[in-house]
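We emphasize that the prediction below concerns an isolated chain of 63 residues; any contacts that depend on oligomerization or on bound cofactors are therefore not represented. The input was used exactly as deposited, without trimming of termini.
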Amino acid sequence: MADKGKMDQTKGKAKEAAGKVTGSERMKAEGKTEQAKGKAKENMADVEERAREAAENLRDKRK
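Result of the prediction step, given as a token string:
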């Protein structure tokens, strides 16, 4: 999922740059939104990974 987040961020940066070149405020805004969406996906994947690790650590301590 983190890879998907990075892909969204990259697409968003490209869309924002295209919006700047063409003068399209809408495209720039869409690009920024896509970047934020990608960052959120990336952060969510990190949280899920930390939760998984914490659960594994707790299981290991119970043994």
